[in-house]
Design brief:
This protein is α+β, with helices and mostly antiparallel strands. It contains 13 helices and 12 strands. It has a 4-stranded antiparallel β-sheet. A 4-stranded antiparallel β-sheet has the order 8-7-9-10. A hairpin with a 2-residue loop joins strand 5 and strand 6. Helix 2 packs antiparallel against helix 4 and helix 4 runs antiparallel to helix 5. The longest helix has 61 residues. It is elongated. 32% of the residues are buried.
Amino acid sequence: MRATFFGIEIGKTGIQVSQLGLDVTGHNMANVETKGYTRQRIVSTAYDPFATIGRALPRDQARVGGGVRVKILDQIRSAYLDKRFRVENTTFSYWNKRAESLSYVESFFDNVNEETSINFSIARLFEAMKVLSEDTVEGAPRKLLQTSGEDLTKQLSMIYDGLIELQESQNKSVEITVGDINRIAKEIQELNKSIYGFEITGHIANDLRDKRNLLLDELSSLIDVEYEEIADGTGHVMLEVYVGGTKLVSHDRVSQLGLLKTDNMIDGEAEVWTPVWISDLGRNYASVVKEAKPPNVPSDYTEINYPNGETRYILTTDLANLNELNMKVVKGGELKAFMDIRDNSGVDLAGIPRYIEMLNNLARALVQEVNRVHSSGWTDPPTGASVTGINFFYYDATDPLGIEQITAKNIRLSDEVAQSEFNIAASSVEIVKQGAPNELQRGNNENLNAMYALFLLKDIEVTISSGSVAIGSFDGFATSVRFDVANTLDFAHKTAKTSGTLQLAAENQRVSVAGVSLDEEMTNLVKYQHAYSGAARVITAMDEVLDRLINGTGRVGL
């Protein structure tokens, strides 16, 4: 026989579940604008009949269930859509930051204003040569050529310095990003411990999981990341996060990225930071020492800066083996974008070193060709003898680097031309102003015409240690530099736009599943309200039945 108060217990379970449903619905509606919040729902199930031998009982004694209970408070979230979004987020973040940085690179080459472009400065230099060829005696045309040469060298130097400042900014961004990655890893580690401690009780830490998912989203924008939840053998799961195949977070343990100073891809410039795994260094290299560098440590140790401010040292001979580790660390996201812009000298994913080298080769071609012609001419000083062998641009013939000593940073007029415009060698013959009448020679403009003809030369080459560099014409090469930057930026913008569209589509799909819909929650509100009223009515009915049973039984005639 069933228990007397069994019906009231059934009604009570209905009230409890409906009340929890109202609480969850209210929680969802309150967090409709909360970033990263995942809507929650209760999954309910019926209480099983208490008798286990129901099949052996007569039908009129069949057992019914004991009401309803909450099976789980679940999140409506798709792990597949999460991973898809984070993959797209990594790609978009890379191209977005790359396009942003290349926009600064383009500004130095001024593709909009022709009058401040490198092409205009080169054309003005050779135009000044043409003006001087029409009157090689007066000082004003000579001053114009001298000033035009100074302006061109200053412009090349200014662009060089601007690109180096941008490279330093990218290097600082690498340092900051590595710090952010380490910070996020620590926060995920702490959340892992909190989630595990909560869920070991049998409940799900939904709101804590939302916070962890936000951190994974943020991490995916910084670097290519993979993750998985693995069982711990007790039925509970632990999160592991991988970067480049190496564990960044393993449940309650976390690895850290260090910053190693490595050579700059641009000769003569300051060293740059390269991220390396501290754990890999400690595990794979016995040469790593923790102590501050004492006097007895050999000079062949290289410094490694740790995120906590600690300094360690590794044998320089081991640095060659770090390249493989570095490739494992950086595969995508903002960190790779910063490093590519800072370090890449190749055609694919070109960075600042490529454009600086192109500027250097343009400067070398100018020095090589203009000096070749100018040094064969003769000067025309107001006083003193005419001399030959004077360079227009500075060049140290004793420097073992040869033409590679010249860069866009250090190109300048020769000391002689900078001191006096009359040291410009316009004449192809010696100028003689004193002596016998038959010895006097006013000179000519033939050497200057030969210099001006360089502007139309189309087969210029510069030979450096890496091989011969085809310049073509000065104007054509300067244009190719500008177009190279513009095309690279355009490709980055288009790819970023495409990646952004894919990222937005993945986000929209994710939000359509995990986001809070006010219309749906209002429907749930009404549903649970009616369910609550129905369960309360069951208790009221059972109360009336029990009242009749307790107070009315045995009283005849009532």
